[in-house]
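Retro notes (design track)

What went well: tokenization of the new backbones is finally stable.
What didn't: we kept losing track of which sequence belonged to which structure.
Fix going forward: every design gets posted as structure first, then sequence, in one message. First example under the new rule, 212 residues:
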């Protein structure tokens, strides 16, 4: 049996959006702690949302080249489950917090994706996105999924320009462990659209059933 595709929605800023996503069966929600992002969230608001969630929904704190103190503060003041690093953070930096982490890798211009992924062998998962190395991501554009090495596809989180309109094609072609969306299910930055999230989950379930 083909494993079901996990779904993460990032850039959550409102309680209602988080609850709606959880009720639709979304596996993980991402909270952006990067001041330059339009989806940046304050600690108190993030914790308010986390506390409102039902069980078995994972919460992920997203950073881009953060100061160590910020990561530690988020860990201390929120009930976050996992860290996600989007910048040029080294494996040593990511691992110092003794917390499960995801390493997001911008693969624009990368010659060997496998070698890059291997640098973060202790990451819980590796996320592949369309932006350049060390950039903020969230470009809303896809990349050439065929460039992902076959042996990595079942292990990665796929991101970059995914929407309810193309997620089935992405899953069918790549068969990733998980997909990650943000702008693809939004009305505006940080404001999620329940109708789009509903279509997303319908499409994921439809293609998963077709492949099982």
């Amino acid at each position: 049996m083909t494993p079901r595709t996990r779904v993460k929605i990032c850039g959550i800023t409102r309680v209602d959006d988080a609850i709606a996503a959880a009720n639709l069966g979304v596996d993980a929600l991402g909270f952006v702690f990067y001041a330059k992002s339009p989806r940046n969230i304050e600690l108190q608001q993030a914790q308010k949302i986390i506390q409102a969630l039902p069980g078995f929904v994972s919460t992920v704190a997203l950073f881009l080249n953060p100061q160590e103190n910020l990561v530690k503060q988020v860990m201390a003041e929120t009930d976050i489950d996992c860290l996600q690093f989007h910048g040029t953070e080294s494996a040593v930096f990511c691992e110092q917090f003794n917390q499960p982490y995801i390493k997001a890798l911008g693969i624009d211009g990368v010659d060997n994706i496998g070698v890059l992924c291997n640098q973060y062998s202790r990451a819980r998962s590796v996320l592949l996105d369309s932006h350049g190395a060390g950039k903020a991501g969230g470009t809303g554009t896809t990349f050439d999924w065929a460039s992902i090495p076959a042996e990595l596809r079942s292990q990665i989180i796929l991101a970059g320009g995914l929407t309810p309109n193309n997620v089935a094609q992405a899953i069918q072609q790549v068969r990733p462990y998980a997909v990650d969306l943000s702008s693809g299910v939004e009305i505006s930055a940080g404001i999620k659209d329940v109708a789009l999230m509903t279509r997303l989950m319908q499409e994921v379930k439809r293609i998963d059933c077709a492949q099982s």
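Added context from the reviewer: DSSP finds seven helices and ten strands in the chain.
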